Amino acid sequence: MFKAKIRLQGRHQIEETSVDLQDSIVNIHDTKIQLQHLRCDPPVSGTIYGVLLNYKGALEALGDLVNEPPYNQPPVAPILYIKPVNTIIGHGSAIPLPAAIEKLEMGAALGIVIGKTATKVSIDEAIHYIAGYTVVNDVSVPHKSVFRPVVKHRSRDGFCPVGPWIIEKDDVKNPNDLTIRVFINGKLVQENNTSNLIRPVEELIRDVSEFMTLFPGDVLLVGVPEASPVVGNGDHVRIEIDGVGFLENTILPENDVYSGGFSG
């Protein structure tokens, strides 16, 4: 069993619990319950920050374009953007497919949950500012530009599933060597590893906290691997991160989601 934090549906507080990652069992008040029988809200409370081009393959995929306008050179600092509160949904919730848009990109990401106020943190100190880790799907409308990430492509309602829990820091031995897998309708379509990060977890915290403060409850995404899977209406998405857990959601038309047409 791993120490974890979870927010049950409709409850304001985040509860400390333990989970069996292999069998998807959550221990709630000394009662063991299968995750499929639980309703969970997102287990995070702060701002979620995304990072572009932090996987080696994602940067390599730009090729010579990285040296042309508007980039002119490879990034020398993290390329950040915000996933605002309207984007955040939980495990099992439907991801809204906007009208007139046929496909969405699934962005499998390890989320670093900040445990205490972090300003100008060194690499050696960075691990002490982490509360734990969670699974995040950084959803976006397919687009080519990574220069000044476009709000309308990344910040639509329901475009950031998170959860179902936060695994405490000490139970994740090495966040820089975690395999990430994406399954669409049960088929493995993407696999990568955080060992391929350009800026490992500690370095990313250092570089971001150099110019901005991260607060308890904030989530810093390590980035999204290259070749993000593309999905459409009715597709079921499962993102797995070894030692952290899995996150599942289904794509449904936004009108069906808003009218209550999705029950879980």
Account of the protein in words:
There is one protein chain. The chain has 264 residues and is mainly β. The chain has one domain: Fumarylacetoacetase-like, C-terminal domain (Fumarylacetoacetate hydrolase, domain 2). It has five helices and 19 strands. The strands form three sheets. Strands 1, 2, 3, 4, 5, 6, 7, 8, 11, 12, 13 and 16 form a twelve-stranded mixed β-sheet that branches. A hairpin with a 3-residue loop joins strand 18 and strand 19. The longest helix is centred in the C-terminal third of the chain and has 9 residues. InterPro entries: FAH, Fumarylacetoacetase-like_C, Fumarylacetoacetase_C_sf, HPA_isomer/decarb_N. This is 4-hydroxyphenylacetate isomerase. One of its GO terms (molecular function) is 5-carboxymethyl-2-hydroxymuconate delta-isomerase activity. Belongs to the FAH family. Keywords: Isomerase, Metal-binding.
Write the layout of secondary structure elements.
Elements: E1 2-8, E2 15-20, E3 25-28, E4 31-34, E5 40-41, E6 48-52, H1 56-60, E7 79-83, E8 88-90, E9 94-97, E10 104-105, E11 108-114, H2 123-126, E12 130-137, H3 151-154, E13 160-168, E14 179-184, E15 187-193, H4 201-209, E16 219-221, E17 230-231, E18 236-241, E19 245-253, H5 254-258
Parallel strand pairs: 6-16, 8-13, 9-19
Antiparallel strand pairs: 1-2, 1-5, 1-13, 2-3, 3-4, 6-7, 10-17, 11-12, 11-16, 12-13, 14-15, 14-18, 18-19
